[in-house]
Amino acid sequence: MSIRFTAKARRGVVALTVAAGLAVGVAGCGGGGGDDKKPETSASASKDGGSGPSTQEGQSDTPLAELKGPNGLLLQVTSAGRDSGGFVTVSGNLKNDSDKVLTIPAQLSGNETEIIRNGRSFGGATLVDSKGKKRYYVLRDTDGRPLTTTGISTVKAGETIPVFMQFPAPPAGTSEVSLQLPMFAPADLTISG
């Protein structure tokens, strides 16, 4: 065997390995973000087997607030509830009101290195208590991942995706806050519970 033949064979194996790696990467990055769902709690999970999405516990059909974003993105907040664990969960629907596929702005993840390292999220969201003069940032788990919906990169025209964000709870006497999201207009919320 000549050195030239060995070098060609080695290049072919490297090219095949790179192609296989890219194929696996493209398949894993898949796209629309429709597969990311908020984990269900076993105590309140619905077992009716219906095909349509049901209204989540504590949520109403009428949004509490709407935040208008760039290019036809709209965040409809359906609930903002104080939990016994000392945090506030804001839930809603991210909707594409345009007639084209929209890419989710990277700014929604915020600018903190630890959150950005964990991929696309709503990590840039904040709750602002103007009376108490405090800003509450999205909570993180012990690995630094934000406690929000993650992995949404695009939203198809007319598509609606359920989202959530968790924040530290303001003091018990505080119920009026403003939800702020990068590139979206802020909206006032009333925290229940």
Report on this structure.
- The protein contains two helices and ten strands.
- By secondary structure, it is an alpha+beta fold.
- The strands form three sheets. The protein has a four-stranded antiparallel sheet, with no helix packed on it.
- The longest helix has 27 residues, at 3-29.
- It starts with a helix and ends with a strand.
- Residues 29-68 are annotated as: Disordered.
- It comes from Streptomyces lincolnensis.
Largest sheet: 4 strands, antiparallel
Strand order of the main beta sheet, please? 1-2-3-8
Q: How many individual β-strands?
A: 10
SSE order, one letter for each helix or strand: HEEEEHEEEEEE
* Whole-number total of structural domains: 2
Question: What Rg, in angstroms, do the CA atoms define?
Answer: 21 Å
- Overall spatial form: globular
Main features:
193 residues; alpha+beta; Immunoglobulin-like; four-stranded antiparallel sheet; 2 helices; 16% helix; globular
